[in-house]
Amino acid sequence: MSEIDRAKWDKKYVAKPQLLRPRDASAVLKQYLPRGEGKRALDLACGAGRNSLYLAEQGYEVDAVDIAKVALDTLWREAQSRGLSEKVFPLLHDLDSFEIKQKGYDLVLMSNFLDRTLIERSKEGLKRGGLYIVETYMADERNEKESSKASNLLEAGELRTIFLDGYKILHFDEYENEDYEIYRMKKQVIVAEKL
Fold first, then answer.
1. Structural domain of residue 126, as residue ranges?
2. How many domains does the structure of the chain reveal?
């Protein structure tokens, strides 16, 4: 694990505690989530776990992966307070080197984070008929956060090309981010079913 990256993210969460406050799960996740008991999900770059907690409340067992110990500690406390400690499994990892060891996830989710190689690596963990949801920032001249690296932003329509082969696209959209975000940013989302 990159100690520099871990320290950077932990410092960011401490400096901006509003990033750790409870928030609603992704609206697209809520809309497209397959219902049922005993399902498995992988939440990559889960942060404080808004989506992981929602998935656990819907009966999923969730591997929640992030590099920030501060965020995972917040997730774990919230999971315990909601009685979800047997459903949420926080995993402290550097996503640059994270390997998908488990196969057969019903859902893989990446929200507010972009790592193109991780998307490709994690596709292997998704079972046929499973959903992959990516919802993150894209390049746009109206974005308020000027410090964003171009490599961390999607180009217009890019997620469609990432899921072109072997997937059925159930939903795609480009939109202004949610009101609770610190900066106004353009986002892109895709829900893709593995064929």
1. 3-194
2. 1
